[in-house]
Amino acid sequence: MPHLVILYTGQLDSEVNMTSLCRQMADAMLTVKDEEGKQVFPTGGTRVLAYPAPHYAVADGGAAGREAGGTGNYAFVYLNLRMGRGRSEAVQQRAGQTLLEVAKAFFAPVMAQRHIGITMQIDVGPEVFDAKHSNLHPLFNKV
């Protein structure tokens, strides 16, 4: 953990490179520091996954967008970061703001052409079951 899951309306696949967004988000996650200046998210545990929704309904179906001079073909991006407990509220806010800024910059050219909504949420909570099996962490735990 942390895991960032991006759900988005599928028409964005023809307009943006979601793999690039995933990389930018992962890189941004690795820059987040705690109050002592330490990296918050472990490199080997950082995951960003993006899933297009081929079927969706957004807002009013496009009426207001067409009335405003657009196509009415709304897009939506939902970013959900799941992190383990133990980080301060300030760190959680810093992580959210960092990721939101990356998303805003990434989607700025698209927002100049169409109506798009972006939501960034962070979930922190008690795990009912939490198990990990990985040979990635040793790559980054070198002393």
Please give a structural write-up.
The structure is a single chain. With 143 residues, the protein is of the alpha/beta class. Helices cover 31% and strands 22% of the residues. It has four helices and four strands. The chain has helices spanning 18-29, 63-67, 89-111, 137-140, and strands at 3-9, 47-53, 75-83, 116-124. It has a four-stranded mixed sheet with strand order 2-1-3-4, covered by helices on one side. Helix 1 runs antiparallel to helix 3. The longest helix has 23 residues, at 89-111.
Q: Which structural category fits the helices and strands? A: alpha/beta
**Which blocks of ≥5 consecutive residues have pLDDT under 50?**
none
Largest sheet: 4 strands, mixed
Looking at the structure, what is the overall shape? elongated
Q: What is the number of beta strands?
A: 4
The span between the termini is 21 Å
Mean pLDDT: 92
Share of helix, binned? 25-40%
H/E element string?
EHEHEHEH
Strand coverage percent? 15-25%
Question: What is the count of DSSP helices, taking H or I runs of 4+ residues?
Answer: 4
How would you write the strand order of the largest sheet?
A: 2-1-3-4
Cα-atom radius of gyration: 17 Å
